[in-house]
Specification:
Blueprint: H1 2-25, E1 29-37, E2 48-51, E3 56-59, E4 65-71, E5 74-82, E6 85-94, E7 100-107, H2 120-127, E8 133-136, H3 138-142, H4 153-158, E9 163-165, E10 173-175, E11 183-187, E12 190-191, E13 210-216, E14 230-236, E15 245-250, E16 254-264, E17 272-282, H5 284-291, H6 293-296, E18 303-316, E19 320-335, E20 339-354, E21 362-378, E22 384-400, E23 406-423, E24 429-448, E25 452-463, E26 468-480, E27 485-496, E28 499-500, E29 514-515, E30 525-526, E31 532-533, E32 541-553, E33 558-575, E34 598-615, E35 619-633, E36 638-640, E37 647-657, E38 663-672, E39 676-677, E40 680-686, E41 704-709, E42 715-716, E43 720-733, E44 736-746, E45 754-757, E46 764-766, E47 771-779
Parallel strand pairs: 1-7, 11-14
Antiparallel strand pairs: 1-4, 2-3, 2-5, 5-6, 8-13, 9-10, 11-12, 13-14, 15-16, 15-47, 16-17, 17-18, 18-19, 19-20, 20-21, 21-22, 22-23, 23-24, 24-25, 25-26, 26-27, 27-32, 28-29, 30-31, 32-33, 33-34, 34-35, 35-36, 35-37, 37-38, 38-43, 39-42, 40-41, 43-44, 44-47, 45-46
Length: 780
């Protein structure tokens, strides 16, 4: 109990501090409210709110909420502008007798956009640090060609500078030196433990429901924790508040269905009760044989998955909102004569937001629970399994300060049980089962002036089950040198409980089991500099981030972002491939690194990311280049990781044809320099000594061949490159465009990119060949 009360006292202190600031700021009038899309009733995120007479304003958040404090007495013209809507203007009178003046903007869509407005992105660039963040909405995600012509958020993630993928078929995503387990994926505040299907090129998310995607590749603020590399924060929209609508689509890869609308009409026009339901089912198991017969020679495409999501949302008086949601996901991959992989995930929760009438605080909260189960069966090998059951509960408080600044604080409580069993290359069993609890308060303050944006935060990751606290300072700064040029930097301390139940040294990881920080680890670790860490009790992982760069607006429509980064992973836990002995008393003289289930490592990652973007009414250009280097130190030697890719290029180009700009043609080209691999140095016949020491080994003829490996990851595979294209053509019926035909080709010039080589047979398994597809969608 004492360990739990310590972080709670810190949280209470932060709350009192914030309440003191609140009392001070509450002495003046604040103009605040929400911005909505009039047609759908959805919040209009990132709209700019501007008070003409004061030449000041704010940017609405994802909920459409804005707050402009310390407004003197007077009559003001308040404007709301956004790139998707016509400008909305209203007169607002401040008498000085009220603490808050609440207003609401209902925005009307404007596809023509005759006048130029300052985009939300440009406004955010001058009022937020925004280091190592890529932000996309649904429209931007749909512009990126993906496999089968099916728009997917995975495509958005994979083109982000600093992200490396190891394969088209079951490959994993690595972010600036971090492994997949070191990336946290959130859906409306809930952790999704397995965000990608085993097929490797589809996620579990529904693109049609996406409101916003924030991809943090490093240096993220104190609001986020529990991972040491990156965070992907996905927000879904609510159901349509004005009418019943939906979308159905069909392609050789999958079938999709989305239904949404109001549940009941409420007397208060500002209140609503809506629903949204989505489902998708893979069809590759049925379509691969007749449509892609050449894939059957490559063991076909034996993948099958199902995703279901449902949400009900109550919007109360335009000031409060409550959402209840649930999901179920299933994935199966049956590689004949090789392996059978299955996982399922299900859960649900509740999110709410409240704007109290007499308080400057905007309050958000979430409660959720989920279950994830994974199993892998392989020929002639013991089965592997992993499961995690967990819950999360959190509260976030924020309020605006002068000049678009903000104070934010909150607390998150997590509990989860993990259970897994696997084995290493020599057959030694590695298993663990435990329950962990985390209590994580945070505080963040953002100051904005004409030239400077300064952000300072602190997060306490308290691992109650291990009686371990990780104090994590975070900081960011931006200097607006001019209207076109901005310099920025950020960094901080990060930690996480989770460890992967597979080795980081494996290129192909079908079994991506999860477990909380193991305790069966070595007690001492010598890092690359010869410094000794003693008394290690668990495998909680830690890292430091440092990022610096600049933003340059080359023209009104072209922007350049350049960032250099350094991540130092001072403590990593990895499954022990060198385990030779069981951890028993008779082996007490054997070094821990040969008998513990997990070993401690350290690592470094540094590089340079460059992103050039252009966006006009007809064109969208995305050119990303990354140079990076990633190494690990295991106590004996330094080695390159399997995802240590030096050069990575992503080029995306979209053009809208036709007078209505409604025929979309997109292309994506990806190039990656060769990934490291461990070469084969030779072979030898292995003697099994069937009769013990009396075996006639000089006269025997061993049939079992062992492999002699060369230097760990000392060679490089050939370069990887691939071109994908997609075309979307709408069909007009009665002045509407309910039908859309989509055509896509994956790997247009049929590049043979190496995925895997069998050391004994020298058989080469290539990644995806040329895959054409056609799909049809209907919207109502």
């Amino acid at each position: 109990m004492h360990h739990i009360l310590k972080p709670m006292r810190l949280y209470f202190t932060l709350f009192l501090f914030s309440f003191g600031i609140q009392s001070f700021t509450a002495q003046t009038t604040t103009i605040r409210g929400f911005v909505y899309d009039k047609e759908t009733g959805e919040p209009a995120p990132f709209a700019k709110i501007f008070i003409v007479e004061l030449s000041s304003g704010a940017v609405a958040d994802l909920n459409g909420f804005f707050s402009i404090p310390r407004i003197p007495v007077g009559l003001y013209t308040v404007e709301a502008t956004s790139v998707q809507f016509s400008k909305n203007t209203m007169k607002v009178e401040v008498t000085g007798k009220q603490l808050f003046v609440e207003i609401r903007f209902d925005m009307v869509s404007d596809k023509v956009m005759n006048e130029v407005v300052i985009s939300a992105e440009q406004q955010q660039q001058t009022t937020q640090v925004q280091t190592s963040i890529t932000r996309m909405d649904q429209a931007q995600v749909e512009r990126i060609p993906s496999i089968g012509g099916e728009s997917d958020v995975l495509a958005a993630f994979s083109i982000t500078p600093g992200v490396v993928t190891t394969g088209d078929q079951g490959g994993q995503l690595y972010v600036r030196g971090g492994t997949p387990i070191q990336n946290r994926t959130l859906l409306d505040g809930m952790t999704i433990y397995s965000p990608f299907h085993s097929i490797g090129f589809f996620s579990v998310f529904e693109t049609e429901l996406i409101k916003n995607v924030d991809i943090y590749t490093g240096g993220f603020s104190a609001k986020y924790g529990g991972r040491i590399s990156s965070v992907v924060d996905i927000t879904y929209r609510d159901g349509n508040k004005s009418k019943f609508s939906g979308k159905a689509s069909l392609s050789p890869f999958m079938a999709r269905l989305i239904l949404e609308g109001p549940i009941a009409k409420l007397k208060d026009e500002r209140s609503s009760l809506t629903y949204v339901v989505s489902g998708k089912q893979s069809l590759l198991k049925q379509t691969a044989k007749p449509l892609y017969p050449y894939m059957n020679d490559r063991n076909g495409l034996p993948f099958n998955f199902t995703d279901i999501y449902a949400k009900m949302t109550a919007n109360i008086g335009g000031r409060s909102k409550v959402s209840v949601f649930g999901f179920g996901m299933h994935d199966g991959a049956n590689f004949s004569d090789i392996a059978n992989l299955n996982w399922k995930s299900y859960g649900g929760g509740m999110n709410f937001s409240v704007l109290p009438s007499n308080s400057p605080l905007f309050i958000k909260g979430h409660v959720n629970a989920s279950n994830y189960q994974l199993s892998l069966s392989e020929n002639n090998l013991p089965p592997r399994f992993s499961s995690i059951n967990g819950f999360e509960m959190g509260f976030d408080f924020s309020y605006a300060t002068v000049n678009s600044g903000e104070v934010a604080f909150g607390i998150n409580v997590e509990g989860f049980s993990t259970n897994f069993e696997t084995f290493n290359e020599i057959g030694r069993v590695i298993k663990d089962e435990n329950f962990s609890t985390e209590i994580n308060p945070y505080f963040n303050y953002r100051y904005v002036s004409t030239r400077w944006v300064v952000e300072a935060g602190f997060r306490l990751q308290y691992y109650a089950s291990y009686s371990t606290a990780s104090p994590e300072p975070r900081a960011g700064i931006k200097f607006n040198a001019s209207d076109k040029f901005r310099i920025k930097a950020s960094g901080g301390r990060y930690s996480q409980n989770f460890t992967s139940a597979n080795s980081d040294r494996d290129v192909v990881n079908l079994f991506n089991g999860l477990l909380s920080a193991p305790t069966n680890v070595q007690s001492n670790f010598v890092n690359e500099n010869g410094q000794v860490s003693e008394g290690i009790r668990n495998g909680i992982q830690y890292a430091w981030h440092a990022i610096a760069g600049f933003e340059l607006d080359l023209t009104e429509n072209i922007s350049l972002n350049v960032e250099g980064y350094y991540k130092y992973f001072d403590k990593l836990s990895n499954i022990n491939l060198n385990k030779l002995y069981d951890d028993l008393a008779q082996f007490s003289l054997i070094d821990d690194v040969f008998k513990k289930d997990f070993i401690i490592e350290s690592g470094k990652a540094y590089g340079l990311d460059i992103l050039l973007k252009q966006s006009t009414e007809r064109t969208f250009l995305w050119l990303g280049y990354s140079w990076g280097k990633v190494t690990r130190w295991d106590g004996f030697m330094s080695y390159a990781t399997v995802f240590d890719r030096r050069h990575n290029i992503n080029l995306v180009f979209t053009y809208l044809f036709g007078a209505k700009k409604n025929i979309e043609v997109s292309a994506r080209w990806n190039y990656g320099s060769g990934l490291p691999f461990t070469p084969t140095a030779g072979f030898y016949a292995s003697e099994t000594f069937p009769n013990g020491v009396s075996s006639e080994y000089l006269a025997s003829n061993p049939s079992y061949v062992e492999t002699i490996l060369g230097g760990l990851n000392s060679k490089r595979l050939p370069d990887y490159h691939r071109l994908d294209i997609s075309v979307k053509y709408p069909i007009t019926i009665k002045d509407k465009e309910p039908l859309e035909i989509s055509f896509g080709i994956t790997n247009v010039y049929n590049r043979q990119n190496i995925f895997y080589i069998n050391r004994l047979t020298s058989q080469v398994i290539y990644q995806l060949p040329i895959l054409p597809s056609i799909g049809l969608s209907y919207r109502w």
